[in-house]
Amino acid sequence: MEVILAETAGFCMGVDMALTKLDHLVGEPDGHPIYILGPIIHNPQVLKRYAEKGVVMVHDPAEVPAGAHVVIRAHGITRQVEESLRARNVLIKDATCPRVKKAQLLIERNTADGGELLLYGEADHPEVAGLVSYAQGGHFVFGSSEELAGHALTPGKRYVLAAQTTQDRVQFESIAKDLAGRGDIEVAVLETICDATKLRQTEARDLAQNVDFMVVVGGYNSGNTRRLAQVVSEQGTPCKHVETVDELPLDELARYKRIGVTAGASTPRLLIDEVLAGLESL
Ligand code: SF4
């Protein structure tokens, strides 16, 4: 059996930077407790390791005490939460991914004259909450062109179209084209989709077309990992999304000749290596 690992499998730049900042704090304790606001990475195995080292995860920013460190994860936070943390003298270590930060600032700048933000993304995703908090003239979040069609757009009004960084570029471009084709509204389209996501998806698509089976490694609660599994399934290639090597259906896999492996942007190298070793043992 041949096992082929996608070149882009594993941590993206933003996740890598956020974990490096947290590792730095954990490795050089200064007496101040360390908090994270929600999971710093969508991977239960890594989160467990940090919890064992004393990192406290809370979901409510009010639970972070004054004087504690709080590491802002790559998704970013809303500007209101950031302001409230600063007002309470919480020590902020901002590990917002530079690409998410850029998207927040682009939205802020482009909606400064009151244009309404139309954001293509998952309404309940923390990155989306952060992005829309920078919109100056109202916002609407939609997950599909059908949902956008159900939102009444006012002729003559100015709109700003943007996407959550991990959204599918092809679908976003099609939405942008449809809006531009209306002619009765003014639409500014912002470039906020991250290439890390696009590269992973393109590579997963190509790999899926050349193997008999695909394994996608990553947290079940990781949006970009789930989307990778979806992209692969759309190619018609059988696929299994696993969090760890123990979940590999080894009996089923033994009959395949070529197996492709990819992993989400929040999947640690160790877990990928364990899956590779499990497959190579076949
Ligand atoms: S996927 Fe892109 S935008 Fe999101 S954290 Fe990674 S590098 Fe940043």
Automatic annotation (TrEMBL):
Dimethylallyl diphosphate binds at H42, H75, H125, S222, N224, S266. Pfam families: LYTB. Pathway: Isoprenoid biosynthesis; dimethylallyl diphosphate biosynthesis; dimethylallyl diphosphate from (2E)-4-hydroxy-3-methylbutenyl diphosphate: step 1/1; Isoprenoid biosynthesis; isopentenyl diphosphate biosynthesis via DXP pathway; isopentenyl diphosphate from 1-deoxy-D-xylulose 5-phosphate: step 6/6. Isopentenyl diphosphate binds at H42, H75, H125, S222, N224, S266. Keywords: 4Fe-4S, Iron, Iron-sulfur, Isoprene biosynthesis, Metal-binding, Oxidoreductase. Catalyzes the conversion of 1-hydroxy-2-methyl-2-(E)-butenyl 4-diphosphate (HMBPP) into a mixture of isopentenyl diphosphate (IPP) and dimethylallyl diphosphate (DMAPP). Acts in the terminal step of the DOXP/MEP pathway for isoprenoid precursor biosynthesis. Its cofactor is [4Fe-4S] cluster. This is 4-hydroxy-3-methylbut-2-enyl diphosphate reductase.
